[in-house]
Write a structure and sequence with these properties.
The chain is an alpha/beta fold. It folds into two domains: 233 residues, TIM Barrel; 84 residues, no CATH class. It is 42% helix and 12% strand. The chain has 14 helices and nine strands. A nine-stranded parallel β-sheet has the order 3-2-1-9-8-7-6-5-4. Strand 1, helix 1 and strand 2 form a beta-alpha-beta unit. Helix 1 runs antiparallel to helix 11 and helix 2 runs parallel beside helix 4. Bound molecules: flavin mononucleotide (FMN). The site of flavin mononucleotide has 21 residues, from helix 8. Flavin mononucleotide (FMN) binds next to helix 8.
């Protein structure tokens, strides 16, 4: 079977430019990234687009797609033209955000119950947009049938891709992604389809891939934040224990890994976490505000270790840089990477 295309889903507060760059330096397997959503693009030279987060000097525009959360066609077009000037080839519209303060204003997945509004929005956007335009959405806000009339609308426009996370907004991130429902929608959709939701291991990837054939593009989310080796493991089974770029299977490394619980994985994870922290610290001029983002990451990364809840209890209450640094060292000293 052809190698799958893998992307990393956007996470507001976690997968910013420093994260994406450090992640790419340490791990393989991800073909494409998305920025967490931008909002409030009120002017042609919007201040919030003059930042490292989207500046090509800090991002690889070939593999990054900027995302916007908006229901205003003029704002989307303004965003598109500024992204184009920066060298981007595609933008993505967020129609999946489930948080009530967004969705109750008919934004994010809150727009899905209103196909006629979506039609008007896409009509204006596609009349004037000069770059690729994709959408990320859910099955609905209140119920999973809301997507059916929306698909008819989507099919009228040349979307560059449609990423579907098969939950409804009211679920937030709880319960299970409805893979079966996604599979039923495949023949109805014209746009290139991307599956997103609950890929947490090589096994779950294989199971989902089987169910959603012939879809071969997948967006990873919390599974990759918890296990940064996941995309490598999906693409090159057994290589998680090896150093980046290793082309042949190092039998010594695998034997050692099976005896001692993946020492190379632990080392790689350790350098990644420290590198990301130091990079964030440099960007923030040494401010302890970096702890918020590092803690967010640890709320997922803890699952890479045994006794994950103990680790989380220790890390979540930390407020000082020194305490954080000591806690991270103790995690790698006292816990096994699983
Ligand atoms: C804290 C948090 C922030 C998120 N931010 C965004 C965002 O900015 N844009 C977006 O499209 N999705 C966002 N998502 C959704 C994820 O990209 C992804 O679609 C979701 O976690 C489902 O995939 P998973 O089950 O593999 O985790 C966010 C999710 C969480 C939990």
């Amino acid at each position: 079977m052809e190698s799958p295309t893998l992307s990393l889903g956007p996470f507001q507060g976690i997968t910013d430019a420093p994260f994406r760059n450090v992640f790419k330096k340490h791990f393989g397997g991800i073909d494409k990234f998305y920025t967490p959503f931008f909002t409030g693009i009120q002017k042609d030279h919007a201040k919030n687009l003059q930042v490292e987060e989207i500046d090509p000097r800090f991002n690889d525009v070939e593999i990054l797609t900027p995302q916007i959360l908006s229901t205003d066609a003029e704002e989307i077009l303004r965003f598109a033209s500024q992204c184009k000037k920066l060298g981007y080839k595609e933008i993505n519209l967020n129609m999946g955000c489930p948080f009530p303060r967004v969705a109750n204003k008919k934004r994010g997945c809150g727009l899905l119950p209103y196909p006629e509004k979506i039609d008007a929005l896409l009509g204006t956007v596609f009349e004037r947009i000069e770059m690729k335009f994709s959408i990320k959405c859910r099955l609905g806000y209140f119920n999973p049938d809301e997507i059916i009339p929306v698909i008819d609308i989507f099919n009228r426009y040349p979307l560059s891709e449609l990423i579907i996370h098969p939950r409804i907004g009211k679920q937030l991130y709880k319960g299970e992604a409805d893979v079966q429902r996604f599979a039923e929608l495949i023949p109805l959709i014209k746009a290139p389809l991307v599956y997103n939701g609950d890929i947490v291991s090589v096994e779950s990837f294989k199971r989902i891939r089987e169910q959603v054939q012939p879809v071969n593009e997948f967006m990873l989310g919390r599974g990759l934040l918890a296990n940064p080796f996941l995309a490598e493991e999906i693409k090159h089974p057994l290589c998680g224990t090896l150093s980046e770029g290793a082309s042949s299977i190092d039998t010594d490394a695998i034997e050692l890994a099976s005896l001692t619980g993946c020492p190379k994985k632990s080392e790689r994870l350790h350098t990644y976490v420290v590198d990301l922290y130091e990079d964030r610290l440099r960007h923030a001029g040494g401010s302890p505000k970096v702890l918020g983002r590092m803690k967010e990451l640890w709320s997922y990364l803890m699952y890479s270790f045994d006794e994950s809840q103990d680790i989380w209890r220790k890390i979540k209450k930390i407020n000082a840089l020194k305490d954080y640094e000591e806690a991270v060292e103790s995690v790698f000293r006292e816990h096994q990477v699983i």
